[in-house]
Amino acid sequence: MSLALLDAVRLRLAESGAEPTPARVAEALRREGRLLGDAEVLGVAARLRSELVGTGPLEPLLAAPDVTDVLVTAPDRVWVDRGAGLERTDVTFPDAAAVRGLAQRLAAIAGRRLDDARPWVDARLPDGTRLHAVLPPVAVGSTCLSLRVVRPRAFALAELVAARALPPGGERLLRAVLDARLSFVISGGTGSGKTTLLSTLLGLVAPDERIVLAEDSAELRPDHPHVVRLETRPANQEGTG
Predict the structure, then answer these.
(1) Which residues constitute the domain of residue 23?
(2) In what order do the strands lie in the sheet with 86-88?
(3) pLDDT digits (tens, 9 = 90+) for 4-62
(4) Together in a domain, 12 and 87
(5) Is residue 31 a part of any domain in this protein?
(6) What is the rounded distance in angstroms from the CA atom of residue 166 to the CA atom of residue 177?
(7) 69, HSE (Cβ side, Cα atoms, 13 Å)
(8) For the range 203-210, what are the long-range contacts, defined as Cβ-Cβ under 8 Å and sequence gap of 24 or more?
(9) Given the DSSP bridges, would you call strands 211-215 and 227-231 parallel, antiparallel or unpaired?
(10) What distance in Å separates the CA atoms of residue 99 and residue 107, rounded to the nearest whole number?
């Protein structure tokens, strides 16, 4: 399908405010004088849905089970982290405006503002994905976009031990800290496993205890029966609230 026809269908759906369901895509194609088979219509609907309400060309990367981070530093520079360092991908955007448009749309989905007056955002998308974005001229050359995938479950401590994420004796030490109800701090670099470890430790809290989480962006997923999750609320456009 040509980009011109895809743009025409996209415009019709945007003007109507309708979601790109297969039936509506088929209707838009008919209005453009094109009749396609079922498989082609479903493909166009999936592509348009990804562009309008998903993460566009980044969607296949975020769907990969081993990807933890997706980073965009330029329209032709998209990177992923699968747990062994950054890898450059073949995914590209048409231009810098496409990267900026995606970043602004994702910020709007998260209920945050991203424009020239407020050129950066740190937010959580509805599926839990952590969003960081910076617009030019603060970001030199192109919008920079970072998406961190939050996995839906916490790991058991035994799994961290098996994966050698803890040093010898580390499991015993951590259990002793929790049993003694001591305060502790978890620190480390980006992607070092801070959130994973904390989620695991919270899952070891006795089930008759109550856990109250207060986070800037909700990421923790402890395996515990009684969790109260609180998340900070950003200020409004006047900077209050």
Answers:
(1) 3-52
(2) 86-88, 77-81, 69-74, 144-148, 130-134, 120-124
(3) 666 666 666 666 655 666 667 667 666 666 655 666 666 665 665 555 556 778 888 88
(4) no
(5) yes
(6) 15
(7) 18
(8) 203/154, 203/156, 203/157, 204/157, 204/174, 204/175, 204/178, 205/178
(9) parallel
(10) 12
Total Cβ atoms within 10 A of residue 47: 20
User: Does the residue 69 lie in any domain?
Assistant: yes
Report the C-alpha gap between 99 and 58 in whole angstroms.
11
**Alpha carbons 27 and 33: distance in angstroms, whole number:** 10
Cα dihedral value 150, 143, 14, 11, nearest 10: -130
pLDDT in tens, 187-234: 988 777 888 899 999 999 999 999 999 988 778 888 899 999 998 877
H-type alpha helices, the chain: 3-16, 22-31, 38-52, 59-63, 96-109, 157-162, 170-179, 194-202
Amino acid at 156: A
Q: In angstroms, rounded to a whole number, what is the distance separating the alpha carbons of residues 89 and 77?
A: 8
Q: Judge whether 55 and 67 are in contact, CB under 8 Å.
A: no
What's the distance, Cα to Cα, between the start and end of the chain in Å? Answer: 48
Tokens of 115: 């424009």
Domain boundary (148, 166, 191) is at 148
The C-alpha angle 143, 145, 147, rounded to 5 degrees, equals 170
Q: Return d(Cα 18, Cα 12) in angstroms, integer.
A: 9
Residue the block writes with tokens 């430790």: 201
- 162 and 170 Cβ atoms separated by less than 8 Å: no
Inter-helix orientation angle 38-52/22-31, to 10°: 100
Dihedrals φ, ψ of 19, to 5°? -75, 150
Domain end among 124, 148, 172 = 148
